[in-house]
Design a protein that fits this description.
This protein is mostly beta strands. Helices cover 13% and strands 35% of the residues.
């Protein structure tokens, strides 16, 4: 027979390991949600293009694929540290950190703003033939801009 009296308590040990792991994973994003400010977003937060690339000749409709570093992509909602969504600004400059990204409308490309408010990283947009500038922009749940941006130029042909 085995003596089980000296066996460590497994549930307590597993709980302690999981708690330590959770603390390590959230260390850069912890904080009081009520004390959130856009300046609390990670310094390495950035939006950039996966596709198309700067200088590409493309056709319309165009699938734009973005990626974000330093944050979790989530649908629009209450602003929270380490969370946000992507925006594509068409033929207009990127928005300075801390300023509001203009609201998208049904004619979003016509107004130059395509907000990926659903937390996605891609959108198909219609563009007229010719050159266009595109800005990859991050914003929080209240549309405040933050993080590094990327601007590219594409030319729609055909």
């Amino acid at each position: 027979m085995h003596d089980r009296s000296h066996r460590p308590d497994r549930p307590a040990r597993v709980t302690a390991v999981l708690a330590a792991l959770l603390l390590a994973l959230t260390a850069g994003c912890a904080g009081d949600p009520g004390a959130y400010g856009v300046d609390d977003q990670p310094a390495d937060a950035a939006a950039r293009f996966v596709s198309p690339r700067d200088g590409d000749e493309v056709t319309s409709p165009l699938l734009v694929v973005l990626e974000a570093d330093g944050i979790d992509l989530v649908p629009c909602g209450p602003a929270a540290e380490c969370e946000g969504h992507l925006n594509i600004l068409v033929d207009r400059p990127c928005v300075a950190a801390g300023d509001l990204v203009p609201a998208a409308a049904l004619d979003a490309v016509g107004r130059g703003v395509v907000a990926l408010n659903d937390g996605s990283d891609r959108r198909t947009i219609e563009l007229e033939p010719g050159p266009h500038t595109l800005c990859a922009q991050l914003s929080d749940g209240t549309q405040l801009a933050f993080g590094a941006t990327e601007t590219i130029t594409v030319t729609v042909v055909g």
